[in-house]
Design goal:
- With 226 residues, the protein is an alpha/beta fold.
- The chain has two domains: 2-154, Alpha/beta knot (3-Layer(aba) Sandwich), CATH 3.40.1280; 171-225, tRNA(m1g37)methyltransferase, domain 2 (Trp Operon Repressor, Chain A).
- The chain is built from seven helices and ten strands.
- It has helices at residues 14-17, 20-28, 64-74, 97-103, 121-126, 143-154, 202-220; strands spanning 2-7, 32-37, 50-51, 61-62, 84-94, 108-113, 118-119, 130-133, 187-188, 191-192.
- The strands form three sheets. Strands 2-1-6-5-8 form a five-stranded parallel sheet.
- 25% of the residues are buried.
Amino acid sequence: MKIDILTIFPKTFEPILNESIIKRAQEKGSVDIAVHNIRDYSDDKHRKVDDRPFGGGPGMVFKPQPIFEAIKKLTANGKRQKPKVILLSPQGKVLNQKLAQKLSQDKHLILICGHYEGIDERVRLKLVDEEISIGDYVLTGGELPAMVLVDTVVRLVKGVLGDEDSSKSDSFCDGLLEYPHYTRPANYKGMKVPEVLLSGDHEKIAQWRKDQSLKVTKKKRPELLN
């Protein structure tokens, strides 16, 4: 998978992309992630990417030119499959596990991190395939949502996780929250691991985990059971 990120704050991504699973995924060649400074595509001599909104109002708006030019450059290779262009926006559909799984099947994603008061509507109408939000609240920019999207999608790409089955038991994968986990020691300060997990009976363990998932979901997120 190829992921291109368009932002005016490229350095904010360095700690995320150079640590843990995402770093290893890039080293293995499972994903290719590149961060691009939108200012590098501006035709303004001062690398300006924003301007005042037509009609008046507070704040500044992202100009269309740098983003159109950036995406033109990133899609210039005709052999590459047409990418999916995503705008991180509070107006978008809320990111969930089902959507992350769908996006993990794409070969090429281009993420646009909005900022300022908003983005010129012509970018949304002409270039954007999908708008995605990480929640019903407003952030100062699209960088944090882009990091969240990259993290949740990359771990679902084939070959990224050491155990392919580990993501299949994640919360929300089957519509339920995940069951409780335990590890050694079996008895810690009088708190004992459920006997069924020590039994070696895989059928009983599977049933226990399913029952616990239902129990945890009912307690913490009952609306998911609807």
